[in-house]
Amino acid sequence: MHPRRHIATASSQAVADASGDAAAGPRSLHRTLRLIEHLAHARAGLSLSALSGDLALPKSSLLGLLRPLCRYGYLAHTDGSYTLGPSAFRLGVAIMPTMSLSRTAAPAMRRLVDRSGETALIAVLDRASAAAVYVEKVESAQSIRYSVSLGTMRPLYCSAAGRVLLAFADDEFIEAFLRRAPFPALTPQTLTRGAELRDMLPRIREQRLAVTVGEVSSDVAGFAAPIFDHHDRVIAALAMAAPVSRTRADPGEYAGLVRQAANDISLALGHLPPPVAPDGASERREQTPRASRRSERAATRLPR
Prior knowledge:
The protein is an alpha+beta fold.
């Protein structure tokens, strides 16, 4: 048997087995997924005739699937062959770091939950939606706790994780986002003015910390810190969410726990911390003015 045909038959059979489920979904969607999966196993690409034979689909039906996939860049059509396109590769590139991040972050997240007693989450920036998306979580064991489904989006302007991701985004993205102000108020405490948010971002970058109280949900406080990769890029935010009543006593302790956990994850990803001065304090901290240190303490003071 020809090598390509062997791979194609095996791939098609695996998908065909899955298609035996009566709840497979709409036929066109199922066929589209089969097509993408099939081409993922054919690096050199396949012609329309080959795809028709391998997938047992009429050429006319295939063309109805291929054309929009090519138009949106998920497939490419070159010299009579179809291959995965740049949009498919971008999707893969976006998924892989998230999977790796989840595995790397798990130990630090569990320690954070053990030490704080509250729920820990990781959020990444969805640039297209201009939102923070939760991709990993370790929930508190307490009966009253913050709970959210993975994949949930939160606004960049009023969630702790969102503000961290916004603060470390590129200038072009930040400016485009701030032009959307004023933002919708989710609670009476929600910050809605673009000017206030703009003033807040440098402090978040300096302190590597964002704190929100009752801005997304009136009874929830959020603490978040950036996660850096080995290129010194912020790839995610680590957040801790808890009922406001449990964080009033010592918000600074929660802030410190979140920041330490985020640092631990960054180190595990190969990020190098700031250089350490001879007295044991980091050079970055040594150069921080006293007024800035006072503002850092103020940033974690919760309203009564």
